[in-house]
């Protein structure tokens, strides 16, 4: 499905919020992800093409920054107040770090893809020289 772009301004805040909810940045109804972190090629609700995204290393970097700013102060606070054994720190803070990372990664990636869509970055603007049509060989074949 080909969706034409009318060139109208796109609201970055709204697109990022929709992306954080793991929804299409255009309509807010369709699911952005086909799997845990695999962005769908296009929105199942409105047909907006999403395969142009280039989130790459930005979502893990932002996730590490956020999780680090949550976990490290908590770890220092617990150490200064209660001074628990090292094994207790490991039992508490390793799972906390893992769970926070896994919980925050999809919404952060969704927000960054939404921002790219709103700013027409990386081929989200069909008039841009960066715009590439979806390669026919990569499109899944109908059964």
Written description of the protein model:
This protein is mostly helical. It has one domain (12-133). It is 47% helix and 0% strand. It is built from three helices and no strands. It has helices spanning 12-20, 58-82, 86-118. α1 (12-20) packs across α3 and α2 (58-82) runs antiparallel to α3 (86-118).
Label this structure with key terms.
143 residues, mainly alpha, 3 helices, elongated
Short description:
With 143 residues, the chain is mainly alpha-helical.
Helix content: 40-55%
User: Would you tell me the overall average pLDDT?
Assistant: 90
- Binned strand content: under 5%
Largest sheet: none
Spatial shape: elongated
Strands, helices and their partners?
Blueprint lengths: L11 H9 L37 H25 L3 H33 L25
Helix pairs in contact: 1-3, 2-3
